[in-house]
Design goal:
With about 475 residues, the protein is an alpha+beta fold. It contains 15 helices and 13 strands. It has helices at about 55-65, 170-185, 225-245, 290-300, 305-315, 320-325, 330-340, 345-360, 375-385, 390-405, 405-415, 420-435, 435-445, 450-460, 465-480; strands spanning about 5-15, 80, 90-95, 105-110, 115-125, 130-135, 145-150, 155-160, 195-205, 215-220, 250-255, 260-270, 280. The strands form three sheets. The chain has an eight-stranded mixed beta sheet with strand order 4-5-8-1-9-10-11-12. A three-stranded antiparallel beta sheet has the order 3-2-13, with no helix packed on it. It has a two-stranded antiparallel sheet with strand order 6-7. Helix 8 (about 345-360) crosses helix 10 (about 390-405) and helix 14 (about 450-460) packs across helix 15. The relative contact order is 0.10. The model has no long low-confidence stretch (mean pLDDT about 90). It binds zinc ion.
Length: about 475
């Protein structure tokens, strides 16, 4: 048991997937040739004037409402001044003391089903900087650096949490479920790899039982949750070592090298007053009509937390089922459509189990496959009324994936209907007669041999026998009971 407790807060930058940039009409693009989506506004020519993208405001409000934030009746933009080649104006238009979304709270669910409550400090609108690429070495060691202004001016929402997280694994649980919620809102594609979602973690440690915060470091810009978790753990371990040796943690920005597992320092952290924030004189305040905000609140889609609670409380699913099935809006929609037609628990089992397993080989998702939710429900019903056995149902599913036919048609075409008991009785009698040794073992009380009879019956009927009916018939024949 460590004598130190980690204290973690995170800052998440989310690129909004609007059609155009935050303050100009340039199209948003990813992967287009560099510097093909620029104009005088996002290249900071003198005398140009920015105009706020209303769709970006709408999406920022949706995020704030989903996070339970207080919505500011009137928020303003500030200039955040710093000089860097990715910022042609030499300031970033951001929000400072009056963000569009104030305090809120996000509830995540850990794998063990317990709740993880994370305070949201704020969520504000800003513009992204251009993209710098360093060639021939990293940063200071690079031979040259090139800049792509396509990304410059992309609408961003920065979400800042309270320092409420107490482990790297909790931080990642929170981030994964926050990401999921943003995907359900449809505001961003939240790709860590492409940089449309980026997370920084503020990490400090303090002796267990104390309340004062230690000096924090900022772990920058990891492009996967896995690396972020490892990076936080490495940084926590580094700080513990410093304190144990009687040293002091210095406030700085650090970087985690996934290849080596090492933490390196980037630069000492700027104090916020270094940015010389001042109100942006070229933009009017954002004052959303309260009726509009109410409308947006009413129109929010059902979010993963509520869906998961409903699946567990009303539909009889396990917490784990619910976590898996709320992975994406598409999967939820697919499951809900099936669950409206047949037993939800059985639909959940078949969709997250056999269907996904069989589709994985082809690299497809259920909603992209030929199998409709209604057909999954029909298969579940065929099982429930005993038309097919479980092994046969798996074969039926394979046929459905291949042809897109409804399960009854596949059953018919492949002759997979379960045999009725009188037909099955003849098959079992023949198996028992042909295997007197195994029959004797059963009489001697070696129940394990039952597996042999079930296997034989499945083989001879091509999977059309109900295993339970087989066991019952064998017992009657061999034991007379
Ligand atoms: Zn532009």
């Amino acid at each position: 048991m460590s004598e130190f407790e980690p204290v973690i807060g995170v800052e998440i930058h989310v690129q909004l997937s609007t059609n155009t940039k935050m303050f100009c009409g340039c199209e948003l693009s990813f992967g287009d040739p560099p510097n093909t989506h620029t104009c005088p506004v996002c290249l900071a020519h003198p005398g140009v004037l920015p105009v706020v993208n209303e769709e970006a405001v709408r999406r920022a409000l949706m995020i704030g409402l989903a996070l339970g934030c207080e919505i500011a009746p009137r928020s303003i933009f500030h200039r955040k001044n710093y000089f860097y080649p990715d910022l042609p104006k030499a300031y970033q238009v951001s929000q400072f003391d009056i963000p569009i979304c104030g305090r809120g709270e996000f509830v995540a669910i850990r794998e063990d089903g317990s709740e993880l409550r994370v305070g949201i400090t704020r969520a504000h609108l800003e513009e992204d900087a251009a993209k710098l690429t360093h060639l021939g070495g990293r940063r200071a060691g690079a031979e040259e650096s090139v800049v792509d202004f396509n990304r410059g001016g992309t609408p961003l929402v920065e979400i800042v949490t309270e320092p409420d997280l107490r482990s790297a694994s909790d931080a990642v649980t929170f981030l994964r479920q926050l990401r999921q919620t943003l995907l359900f809102l449809g505001v961003s594609d939240c790709s860590m790899e492409e940089g449309s979602m980026r997370a920084d973690a503020n990490v400090s440690i303090r002796p267990v039982g104390t309340h004062e915060f230690g000096t924090k470091t900022e772990l920058k810009n990891m492009n996967s949750f896995r690396f972020l978790e490892r990076g936080m753990d490495a940084e926590i371990a580094r700080q513990e070592e410093i304190l144990r040796d009687g040293g002091r943690v210095s406030q700085e920005t650090v970087h985690y090298e996934p290849e080596t597992g090492h933490i390196t320092s980037l630069r000492s952290k700027e104090e916020s007053h270094d940015y010389r924030y001042f109100p942006e004189p070229d933009l009017v305040p954002v004052a959303p009509d309260p009726a509009w905000v109410d409308q947006l609140r009413d129109d929010l889609p059902e979010l993963p937390l509520s869906l998961r609670r409903r699946m567990v409380d009303d539909m009889g699913l396990s917490a784990e089922d619910a976590l898996v099935l709320t992975e994406s809006p598409e999967l939820v929609a697919y499951f809900m459509e099936a669950a409206a037609l047949a037993d939800p628990k059985a639909c959940a089992n078949w969709i997250r189990g056999e269907l996904r397993a069989q589709l994985r080989e082809a690299g497809t998702e259920p909603w992209e496959s030929k199998v409709t939710p209604a057909h999954v429900a029909a298969l579940v019903d065929l099982l429930a009324i005993g038309t097919v056995s479980v092994p046969a149902a798996k074969e039926v599913l394979a046929g459905m994936i291949e042809t897109g036919d409804e399960p009854a048609a596949v059953v018919e075409a492949k002759g997979l209907a379960q045999m009725d008991e009188s037909d099955l009785a003849g098959v079992i009698a023949a198996i028992v007669e042909a295997n007197p040794d195994q029959a004797q073992q059963l009489r001697d009380g070696k129940d394990k041999v039952m597996g042999f009879f079930v296997g034989q019956a499945m083989k001879q009927t091509g999977g059309r026998a109900d295993p339970q009916a087989v066991q019952k018939l064998v017992r009657e024949l061999v034991l007379g009971s």
